[in-house]
Design brief:
The complex is a heterodimer of chains A (298) and B (323).
Chain A lengths: L2 E10 L2 E11 L4 E5 L6 H8 L7 E6 L1 E2 L5 H7 E4 L12 H6 L14 H13 L15 H14 L4 E5 L7 H14 L2 E5 L3 H7 L2 E6 L2 E7 H4 L2 H6 L5 E5 L5 E5 L19 H4 L19 H4 L2
Parallel strand pairs in A: 3-8, 3-9, 6-7, 7-8
Antiparallel strand pairs in A: 1-2, 1-4, 4-5, 9-10, 11-12
Helix pairs in contact in A: 4-5, 5-6
Chain B lengths: L1 H5 L7 H13 L8 H35 L12 H15 L6 H23 L1 E2 L2 E2 L1 H24 L3 H12 L10 H17 L1 H7 L3 H6 L4 H23 L5 H13 L3 H25 L8 H19 L7
Antiparallel strand pairs in B: 1-2
Helix pairs in contact in B: 2-3, 3-8, 3-11, 3-12, 3-13, 4-5, 4-6, 4-7, 4-11, 5-6, 5-11, 8-11, 8-13, 9-13, 12-13, 12-14, 13-14
The chains are: A alpha/beta (298), B mainly alpha (323).
């Protein structure tokens, strides 16, 4: 299902966290949300999985998520978050995956054949079967994330929201998890810190900086040296390897304190430099090609 | 339970007990031959055993849901201040209620009011802008508990030695004063709240995944927390009012069930109720047989018997190593 975020403003304790954020993910798209710490990525996700009510603007997953009940919204959107499975001591892996069926039942609902099928399918798909009866706490990091992904798939969602799901995983586990996510075919909005992984997983990237969308679009178009410098504060270039993999190549020297380098000093539009001013909305911030951020991610 | 009824200061053969209970419950069978025996079994022992079962069930269920909604394995009616509220209410009546011979009833009502007051305070202080964060709830409960405990201690200083003995006995809990007319209310509250809380089982399971994940699983976390806290306070207040403050059952029984059959609330709550009931019936049985004809307060035995077994189970369980 298509995800649309339309002119979203979010304020926490009177501090504006997100300003005028627009983004769109078409059915089946994997959209990556990248940006430095504190740029508002997780906050944006919370608005999408209906945990945080926006001050203004709309999140649509088919319908406005705040016009849906919590349960109805959770039947469309599933999330794998950083709370890492919470405190599930005493629940087996299968029971944790079965939590994904919660939004499909009211107070009197009992597990039926459809629930068992959804749980089994999610377990199979994520390769969780070998440890389905174990305690969550006894699993490795990679196994845990696969269990949580299985829980999300058991919800039978039409949108997946992922917050830093590759954190603390070894490199092989990361790739396996990304492949699993890609194979689901479900529309996905994923926050990723690692830009190489983001480039590997995502069709499109949205760059968030100080609560506003700086640029959005195809990976190579978005991760320009100027964006990497101005938003992420690193000297780097992006290149496509002959085998098709997109890599970010980081420079040997750190940036000078004033954030300038010799090259590409003004490649990103004016909007970026003063992104912390309240007027730097996504609609008006041109990216490297002069397209609006909203238009870049169709 | 029949066996528990048969044992006491006067031992009654199990067969006779069965006959007497059957006669009263179904109205069939021969009338009891010995009126004194009938009196002991039906008017004293039976309500007492039934009350012990209800109180054990209530405390265990309350502890189980509290541990989940405040995400803290140490939570129970004592930690959240409910028990101290009830104690203050009861102690006030025992000490200042004058020479009321019927202090039992007055103390119960006051204890219930005290538990509700503590619950309301924790509820009000544990939230900020409509959001109830688990840690804030626990700390509010602990603080409220200390305030009530301080007030209780002060009141105790004003008590006569005789009143003080009653107070101490009450604070350690007993079902010796069980009467038939208390039972309907307690039964209805314990059964109804346990049933209601069990209906929330799936959502309570989701809450184990963390607040944010539970929200993404379609649970209105704040509302769930509020509803469960109110039900737990009602349940706790009701059983403490008729039994005094019995510790350890609410803390231990739910963990015992989790460690043996798992944490799924749809099984955890009914089984905690069952195990809590059995445990308190046994403890009550011991309390009146260990030191015949004297009686020991329940609170002493619940911990003395339960703690070693619980510790053994903790050491045996491997799942706890990594958390």
């Amino acid at each position: 299902m298509k995800l649309t975020v339309d002119r979203l403003h979010i304020t926490l304790d009177r501090t504006p966290i997100l300003r005028e954020v627009n983004l769109e993910a078409r059915k089946g798209d994997i959209v990556g949300l990248v940006g430095p710490n504190g740029s508002g990525k997780s906050t944006l996700l919370r608005a999408v999985y209906r945990s945080l009510r926006p001050a203004d603007g709309v999140v649509r997953v088919g319908d406005d998520v705040w016009a849906l009940s919590a349960r109805a919204a959770a039947r469309r959107t599933a999330a794998v978050l950083q709370d890492g499975g919470g405190n599930t001591t005493g629940l087996t892996v299968t029971e944790i995956v079965a939590l994904g069926r919660a939004p499909h039942h009211g107070l009197l609902g009992r597990d039926g054949a459809a629930d068992h099928r959804a749980v089994q399918e999610a377990i199979d798909r994520c390769g969780v079967l070998p440890f389905a009866d174990r305690d969550f706490a006894s699993l490795s990091g990679g196994e845990r994330q696969r269990v949580l992904l299985a829980r999300a798939l058991a919800q039978r969602p039409q949108l997946l929201v992922l917050d830093e799901v590759t954190n603390h995983l070894d490199i092989r586990a990361r790739f396996e998890l990304l492949d699993l996510i890609r194979a689901t075919g479900v529309t996905t909005l994923a926050v990723l810190h690692d830009l190489d992984l983001a480039a590997r997983l995502c069709d499109h990237l949205v760059v968030l900086h100080k609560g506003a969308v700086i640029t959005a679009g195809l990976v190579l178009k978005v991760l320009t040296p100027a964006v990497l410098r101005d938003v992420f504060g690193v000297r780097a270039t992006t290149e496509r390897h002959p085998d098709g993999v997109i890599r970010v190549v980081y420079g040997a020297q750190p940036l000078a304190d004033d954030g300038t380098t010799d090259a590409d000093s003004t490649a990103v539009g004016d909007g970026t430099a003063d992104a912390d001013s309240t007027t730097a909305g996504a609609d008006t911030t041109p990216d490297g090609d002069g397209r609006s951020a909203e238009g870049a991610v169709r | 339970m029949i066996v528990a009824i048969s044992i006491g200061a006067v031992d009654v053969p199990v067969g006779d007990v069965w006959g007497i209970v059957l006669h009263h419950v179904t109205g069939t069978g021969p009338a009891p031959a010995d009126p004194a025996l009938d009196q002991i079994v039906w008017n004293f022992r039976t309500p007492r055993v039934v009350l012990a079962a209800l109180v054990g069930a209530g405390l265990a269920v309350s502890g189980a849901v509290l541990q989940t909604v405040v995400s803290n394995p140490l939570a129970d009616p004592v930690v959240l201040g409910f028990s101290y509220g009830a104690t203050l209410g009861a102690v006030l009546v025992i000490t200042f209620g004058g020479g009321m011979a019927l202090a039992g009833i007055g103390a119960s009502a006051a204890a219930f009011a005290g538990a509700m007051a503590a619950g309301a305070l924790v509820f009000a202080l544990g939230q900020r802008r409509g959001r109830m964060a688990p840690t804030r709830l626990v700390l509010a409960g602990v603080a409220v508990g200390y305030v009530f405990l301080a007030a209780t201690s002060y009141v105790q200083l004003q008590a006569t030695p005789n009143e003080l003995r009653t107070v101490t006995f009450w604070m350690l809990g007993s079902v010796a004063g069980a009467q038939w007319d208390q039972l309907p209310t307690v039964t209805v509250v314990v059964l109804a709240t346990t049933a209601l809380l069990s209906l929330f089982g799936r959502r309570l399971n989701a809450l184990l995944a963390g607040d944010e994940s539970a929200t993404a699983l379609g649970v209105d976390v704040n509302r769930l927390r509020a509803v469960v806290l109110v039900l737990a306070a009602l349940l706790t207040g009701t059983v403490i009012a008729v039994s005094g403050s019995i510790g350890f059952v609410g803390l231990m029984i739910p963990h015992l069930v989790r460690l043996t059959i798992g944490a799924d609330h749809r099984r955890l709550l009914p089984l905690s109720a069952l195990l809590g009931a059995v445990y308190l019936v046994l403890v009550d049985l011991l309390s009146r047989t260990l030191d015949r004809p004297n009686e020991l307060p329940l609170g002493i035995l619940t911990a003395l018997l339960g703690a070693p077994f619980f510790l053994w189970l903790l050491r045996r369980n491997k799942g706890l190593d990594s958390v």
